[in-house]
From TrEMBL, chain A:
Names of the cofactor(s): FAD
Organism name: Neoroseomonas alkaliterrae
Coiled coil (UniProt feature): none
Protein name stated in the entry: Electron transfer flavoprotein subunit alpha
Gene3D superfamilies, A to Z: HUPs, TPP-binding domain
Protein task: The electron transfer flavoprotein serves as a specific electron acceptor for other dehydrogenases. It transfers the electrons to the main respiratory chain via ETF-ubiquinone oxidoreductase (ETF dehydrogenase).
Annotated InterPro entries: DHS-like_NAD/FAD-binding_dom, ETF_a/b_N, ETF_a/FixB, ETF_alpha_N, ETF_asu_C, ETF_asu_C_CS, Rossmann-like_a/b/a_fold
PANTHER family listed in its UniProt record: ELECTRON TRANSFER FLAVOPROTEIN ALPHA, ELECTRON TRANSFER FLAVOPROTEIN SUBUNIT ALPHA, MITOCHONDRIAL
Lineage of origin: Bacteria, Pseudomonadati, Pseudomonadota, Alphaproteobacteria, Acetobacterales
Presence of the UniProt keyword Coiled coil in the record: no
UniProtKB/TrEMBL annotation, chain B:
Protein name per UniProt: Electron transfer flavoprotein subunit beta
InterPro entries named among the record's database cross-references: ET-Flavoprotein_bsu_CS, ETF_a/b_N, ETF_b, ETF_beta_N, Rossmann-like_a/b/a_fold
Coiled coil: none
Subunit field text: Heterodimer of an alpha and a beta subunit.
Molecular-function GO terms, alphabetical: electron transfer activity
Start and end residues of each Electron transfer flavoprotein alpha/beta-subunit N-terminal domain: 23-211
GO biological process: carboxylic acid catabolic process
Record has Magnesium as a keyword: no
UniProt-listed SUPFAM superfamilies: Adenine nucleotide alpha hydrolases-like (SSF52402)
Species this chain originates from: Neoroseomonas alkaliterrae
Cofactor: AMP
Protein family (similarity comment): Belongs to the ETF beta-subunit/FixA family.
């Protein structure tokens, strides 16, 4: 039986975490992709180009709400052995709902596929990895994108079909969104991430990090303390309960290294920490540690990168 | 309206858990247990709704061992009115918890259930969405703001890229994100008062719920350990190392 991937998409393209999810799905069977919501038709054309995708289903519509989307997934479910989505805010919102409607225990945030029934997933903020075997007839899964290399964006040419219409149960309505516009790469897709912590002191001070980010073509992240203090938007939070990232290079600036933060970045290839406290736990996971005042070191870093 | 708040007993967030040598799970004997931090936020939100006159009664529910009474007591000390313990030793997956909660909802008839977005032990982030599905209610997950708006509920949600606002028909499900509020500490007089508040105990079987797990844990392992690297003396040295040694810039 084929497997179905629910895509996240933006501006007529599927996201990189979706391409990672397609890679994970490829280990389970023939991959079909469902693209739903506003701009679905354009994104479906992009999904059709992903290598390994055999069919794309589109459900063009307004902003995606969990209730009708879960109903659509349930309507499609009989044709699939596995339903997968990236473990993004969107995927985590809808997949457990669809799973419950199917009387299936969702398997959240998988970091490995052992076989069709068996998956590896982090528990306790990634301090342990559990291998779990599902007894459910159908598997409903969210995928930790950082753990699977994405399939390329080009190379395939799958047919695109309209998905059957599913009734909207009318339980919720979309009122609006405030989406942060940024020219920088997405946190979960960037090759380099530079994050600031509580020590940044203000939203204005984040500018020194942004300057370095622009030099490196990096995404900007933040610790929870920085987000809570209003120095950075919630969307930038890296950690157990924020975004999980695994870039080639992660630079932690003025971040102590609490387990909840490490949970979101410790699989990065190279970690740099800049902290004025040489005892800060972040240094225990850093490949390169610089004990320094960030207000001196970060501008210096920008200058050095310009050379 | 009546508000139901499910609270889970979990290993305290400050504890760095250790994987058991035999690979069957993590060490939970003699470690500090607490209410799941997201559930404290849920209780706080319910108490604030009561203080605003929106909520009339708050019922805290926990499914787990008899010791989960401690977490119910904490919720009562924060301002919940009464508790229900669904006593069960052994694994309870989100689907099973959602079925238990559905049965409790049928008995209690709340207009709103506020759950944490994620339990910090299983990191499933599922129970609220599953309960919403089983009840056929709307869901406002990862909430950073909740407002009653006539017969509906306006929920601001933390999503990829920023914030989104949805309107939910009541009754509804909300799950809390970190920035919804800052939970209060229970005062000593309130802790004393909480001792007199009632906690009812039931079993999953009394509710007619089958809690058999669907997932079998085959093994639990430590994640690969990272080695601490080296300290660099200057920004120049750092950039040099990143260029020539790590080759990442
Ligand atoms: C349920 C739960 C979930 C959580 N989820 C997350 C999550 O997803 N992500 C997350 O990040 N956190 C999360 N946390 C919070 C986490 O426990 C920490 O509180 C948080 O990560 C601390 O942020 P910080 O390192 O910026 O701040 P702090 O711990 O205050 O560290 C600041 C650091 O800056 C250094 N510093 C100060 N001044 C300077 C200077 N001038 N130059 C250089 N260095 C300086 C200090 O030495 C210190 O190490 C969560 C907590 C809970 C309870
Ligand atoms: N055993 C339980 N008892 C009470 N509430 C629970 C239990 N398990 C999960 N919950 C609720 O569901 C939320 C999400 O948990 P989870 O889906 O396991 O990540 C928690 O924050 C609690 O509000």
């Amino acid at each position: 039986m084929a497997v179905l991937v629910l895509a996240d998409h933006k501006d007529g393209a599927v996201t990189q975490p979706t391409r990672s999810t397609v890679a994970a799905a490829g280990k389970l069977g023939e991959v079909h992709v469902l693209v739903a919501g506003e701009g679905a038709a354009a994104a479906a054309a992009a999904a059709a180009k992903l290598p390994g995708v055999a069919k794309v289903l589109t459900a063009e519509g307004g902003p995606v709400l969990a209730e009708p989307l879960a109903a659509l997934l349930v309507a499609l479910a009989p044709g699939y052995s596995h339903l997968l989505a990236p473990a993004s805010a969107a995927g985590k919102n809808v997949m457990p709902r669809a799973a419950a409607l199917l009387d299936v225990q969702v398997i959240s945030d998988i970091a490995g596929v052992v076989d069709a029934d068996t998956f590896v997933r982090p528990i306790y903020a990634g301090n342990a990895m559990a291998t779990v075997k599902s007894a459910d007839a159908k598997k409903v899964i969210t995928v930790r994108a950082a753990s699977f290399d994405p399939v390329p964006a080009e190379g395939g040419s799958a047919p695109v079909e309209a998905a059957p219409a599913a009734a909207d149960p009318g339980l919720s309505t979309f009122l609006g969104a405030e989406i942060v516009k940024s020219e920088r790469p997405e946190l979960t897709a960037a090759r380099i991430v530079i994050s600031g912590g509580r020590a940044m002191g203000s939203a204005e001070n984040f500018a020194i990090i942004e300057k370095v980010a622009d030099k490196l073509g990096a995404a900007v992240g933040a610790s929870r303390a920085a987000v809570d203090a209003g120095y950075a938007p919630n969307d930038m939070q890296v950690g157990q309960t924020g975004k999980i990232v695994a870039p080639d290079l992660y630079i932690a600036v003025g971040i102590s290294g609490a387990i909840q933060h490490l949970a979101g970045m410790k699989d990065s290839k190279v970690i740099v920490a800049i902290n004025k406290d040489e005892e800060a736990p972040i240094f225990q996971v850093a490949d390169y540690g610089l004990v320094a005042d960030l207000f001196k070191a970060v501008p210096e870093l920008e200058a050095e990168l310009s050379k | 309206m009546k508000v139901l708040v499910p609270v889970k007993r979990v290993v305290d967030y400050n504890v760095k858990v250790r994987v058991k040598a035999d690979g069957t799970g993590v060490e939970t004997a003699n470690v500090k247990m607490s209410m799941n931090p997201f559930d404290e936020i849920a209780v706080e939100e319910a108490v604030r709704l009561k203080e605003k006159g929106v909520a009339s009664e708050i019922v805290a529910v926990s499914a787990g061992p008899s010791a989960a009474q401690e977490q119910i007591r904490t919720a009562l000390a924060m301002g919940a009115d009464r508790g229900i313990l669904v006593e069960h030793d052994g694994v309870l997956e989100p689907l099973a918890v959602a079925k238990i909660l559905k049965a409790i909802v049928a008995k209690e008839g709340p207009q709103l259930v506020i759950l944490g977005k994620q339990a910090i032990d299983d990191d499933m982030n599922a129970t609220g969405q599953m309960l919403a599905a089983l009840l056929g209610w709307g869901q406002g997950t990862f909430a950073s703001k909740v407002e009653k708006d006539g017969e509906s509920l306006k929920v601001t949600r933390e999503v990829d890229g920023g914030l989104e606002t949805v309107s939910l028909k009541l009754p509804a499900i909300v799950t809390t994100d970190l920035r919804l509020n800052e939970p209060r500490y229970a005062s000593l007089p309130n802790i004393m008062k909480a001792r007199k508040k009632p906690i009812e105990t039931v079993k999953p079987a009394d509710l007619g719920v089958d809690v058999t797990p669907r997932l079998t844990v085959l093994k639990v392992e430590e994640p690969p350990k990272r080695q601490a690297g080296k300290k660099v003396a200057s920004v120049q040295e750092l950039v040099e190392k990143l260029r020539t040694e790590a080759k990442v810039i």
